[in-house]
């Protein structure tokens, strides 16, 4: 029973549904203000997220298994041992289609070049976000290999 108190529920929710729903002993997220490490019994918190990986240390594996999820922005809320991440999109490392992410990276790099040549600042920014998302997905996918 004491071990149960040293866990928290971690959920990642997107418009397509729940992407991740497990218990964890430690969560690391990158917010717009920097990294936040979350432990059980943390005070209530809410923060905006960057495009980055989410790390969840699982309690059932004493060898330090970490689940990785590519999160594309959103918010994190911590409340009563429940960590909820709401994001436009998110993918677990094992679910990422690496070839699709690689194609998205190449497409974004091409769009950046074209937009810069045409001096379209908004298009450059949009393509840079797409590139960041593709790189995040590729980074998280390599954690699973």
Question: What tags apply to this protein structure?
Answer:
145 residues; alpha+beta; eight-stranded mixed beta sheet; 8 strands; elongated
Structural overview:
30% of the residues lie in helices and 42% in strands. It has 145 residues and is an alpha+beta fold. Strands 1, 2, 3, 4, 5, 6, 7 and 8 form an eight-stranded mixed sheet that branches.
In terms of DSSP E residues, the strand content is: 35-45%
Helix content: 25-40%
- SSE string, helices as H and strands as E: EEEEEEEEHH
SSE class: alpha+beta
- Low-pLDDT runs: none
Number of helical segments with 4 or more residues: 2
Oligomer: single chain
Question: What is the radius of gyration computed over CA atoms, rounded to a whole number of angstroms?
Answer: 17 Å
Shape: elongated
Give the termini separation.
Answer: 35 Å
SSE blueprint:
Elements: E1 8-14, E2 17-24, E3 26-31, E4 34-38, E5 45-57, E6 66-79, E7 82-86, E8 90-92, H1 98-117, H2 121-144
Parallel strand pairs: 1-7
Antiparallel strand pairs: 1-2, 3-4, 3-5, 5-6, 6-7, 6-8
């Amino acid at each position: 029973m004491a071990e149960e108190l040293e866990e928290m529920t971690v959920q990642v929710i997107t418009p397509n549904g729940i992407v991740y729903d497990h218990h964890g002993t430690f969560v690391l997220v990158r917010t717009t203000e920097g990294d936040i490490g979350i432990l059980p019994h943390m005070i209530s918190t809410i923060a905006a997220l960057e495009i980055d990986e989410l790390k969840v240390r699982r309690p059932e594996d004493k060898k330090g298994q970490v689940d990785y999820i590519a999160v594309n922005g959103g918010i994190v809320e911590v409340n009563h041992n429940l960590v909820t991440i709401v994001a436009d999109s998110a993918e677990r490392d094992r679910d990422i289609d690496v070839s699709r992410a690689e194609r998205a990276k190449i497409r974004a790099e091409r769009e950046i070049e074209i937009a810069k040549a045409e001096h379209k600042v908004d298009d450059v920014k949009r393509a840079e976000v797409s590139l960041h998302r593709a790189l995040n997905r590729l980074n998280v996918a390599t954690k699973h290999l």
